[in-house]
Amino acid sequence: MSKTAYTTHHGMTDLLPGEIEQWQALEAIIHETARLFHFQEIRTPVLEQTELIARGVGQLTDIVSKEMFTFDRGEDHYVLRPEGTAPVARAYVQHHLAQRGGTQRLYYIGPFFRAERPQKGRQRQFHQFGAELVGARGSIADVEIIAFMTRIYRQIGITNTTLKLNSVGEPESREAYRKALRDYFKPLAGQLSEVSRNRLDTNPMRILDSKEEQDQPLKAGAPVITDFLSAASRKHFESVRDLLDKLRIPYDVDPFLVRGLDYYTETAFELTSPDLGSQDALGGGGRYDLLIEEVGGPPTPAVGFACGIERLMIACEALGLKLADPSGPDIYFVTRGEEAARWALEKMPDLRNSGLVCTMDYSGRSLKAQMKDANRQQARFAVIIGEQELNDNMFTLRDMEKSEESLISGSEITERVLSS
RNA sequence: GAGCCCAUAGCUCAGUCGGUUAGAGCGCCAGGUUGUGGCCCUGGAGGCCGUGGGUUCAAUUCCCAUUGGGCUCCCCA
Questions:
Q1: Strand B: which nucleotides have any atom within 7 A of a protein Cβ?
Q2: Could you tell me the CATH number of the domain that includes residue A398?
Q3: Chain A 117-146, CB < 7 Å to strand B
Q4: What secondary structure does DSSP assign to A145-199, as a single string?
Q5: Is A212 contained in some domain?
Q6: In angstroms, how far is B68 C1' from A111 CA?
Q7: For residue A215, is pLDDT > 80?
């Protein structure tokens, strides 16, 4: 163990065979769901300009103020992207996607980076998938996004989730609400936890998601943002709830749901699971009507979500959900002698052209060792080739599960395996 | 940034009240079957007992530090 000179950095892990199958199966579900919603994949670089993230996500957010991996080369300031929405917004502006007309329906899967202390469900390199509807104003867009997200979990079989829903309104309402919160909490400052007290001036809305024991009773009497929403915001929020009801997507309105990024407006939501332990958010999202403009584009309403893949895996694990089993080859060639091995090597391209998965021993090991390997790899059939077989052009085809053997000619292999 | 826990074979873990060559199960390799997997039997490889220092005649064991890992708070995915 100590002989291993190099290891991954703290909070970054390798995905090995045995584990990767689950990821691939999940990715297949994501791509298929996106196809059904007619969203198209977008891939943006892992490195972005630090300024983009700082502006887009917000200078005062935890992400920007203390969790970014950054480095400089000459004049350029690089950051490992900590989230997906700001880069998508940047791409939308940079490539003038607005000029393509209509609404851009985009989704992505990929790694993101935050320099936090790792723990269960939190890695420094983690993975998210997400979707964005850019250029869509109506509440139907919000609901499509939520439907997209929840459908994926339903497809997987994760059903014991809670969808929390709130509206954070427009900036003006939020400012009025912030003031009301300050007015409410100021006299109680002495009873607040230290973290919350510090937020009183900087970001009082964050006091609302405090988990500190002592803050809970104080939160209970706090003003609710719903009372500060403009008529338009209120109508939008009502419409979202109404449409969710129509789609029979259950949700809980949580007036204290405040998401950590600055760019959210109007609808905000979060999907939580009881199987995740302390980090219980599977994913979340909301509307961000001002972000595109903030990063230099035309005023463009948008809504999106992002979900953590590692957390999804934890939930699958807890629920015993296996999305995929590793599959073995159709044929494993067991060879004796160099000539036999060469015959097998030359035969395999034909079989593969027919769609058969085949492999063989590469080291000229004993027959027993090769059979053992075929078994370990869960091969459906072993084809045994020795001198005799080559001379007669008749080979032993062994059904590994039934332990039955038959003699067949070389040209029969494909058909026999395909038909069983 | 703060707190708690852990560190012995590839994996999961015993163990030494401080005392010669450090163990098991699984896995791996080989033999039993000179051409046949899974079950069984036999054998083998594989550990500076995370690292550094201290106490001691003697440390994998006790003490300190350090590194790595896990969990929690904060916050998020």
A1: 1-3, 8-11, 28-31, 33, 35-38, 48, 50-51, 68-77
A2: 3.40.50.800
A3: 117-123, 126, 128
A4: HHHHHHHHHHHHT----EEEEEE---HHHHHHHHHHHHHHHGGGGGGS-HHHHHH
A5: no
A6: 24
A7: no
Least confident of A60-69, A83-92, A406-415: A60-69
* φ, ψ at A138 (rounded to 5°): -70, 165
C1' (B1) to CA (A94) span, angstroms: 38
> How many independent structural domains does chain A possess?
2
Is residue A224 pLDDT above 80, yes or no? yes
- Pick from A52, A57, A60: which is nearest to A206 by CA? A60
- Which residues form the domain of A146? 20-169+229-319
Q: Which comes out higher in pLDDT, residue A198 or A101?
A: A101
Nucleotide nearest to A116 (CA to C1'): B75
Residue where the block lists tokens 């979707």: A131
Does nucleic acid strand B have an atom less than 7 angstroms from the CB of A235? no
Report the CATH number at residue A66: 3.30.930.10
Mean pLDDT on A371-375: 95
- pLDDT at residue A1, rounded to an integer: 38
Could you tell me the pLDDT band of residue A208, with boundaries at 50, 70 and 90? confident
Helix ranges restricted to H, A38-84: 50-57, 62-66
Closest nucleotide over all strands to A396 (CA to C1'): B36
Claim to verify: residue A136 and residue A274 sit in the same structural domain: yes
Using a 7 Å CB cutoff, list residues 201-230 of A near strand B.
206, 209-212
* pLDDT of A3: 42
- Give the sheet arrangement for strand A252-253, strand by strand: A40-41, A104-113, A125-134, A302-308, A281-287, A265-272, A162-167, A252-253
A104 touches strand B (CB under 7 A): no
- Nearest nucleotide (C1') to alpha carbon of A203: B75
Residue A51, token pair as written in the block: 């300024």
A349 lies in the same domain as A307? no
Whether CB of A66 is under 7 Å from strand B: the answer is no
Nucleotide nearest A334 (Cα, C1'): B36
Using an 8 Å Cβ cutoff, are A118 and A11 in contact?
A: yes
C-alpha separations of A122 from A11, A99, A321, A322, A369 in Å? 8, 38, 21, 22, 42
Mean pLDDT, residues A49-56: 94
Nucleotide nearest to A120 (CA to C1'): B71
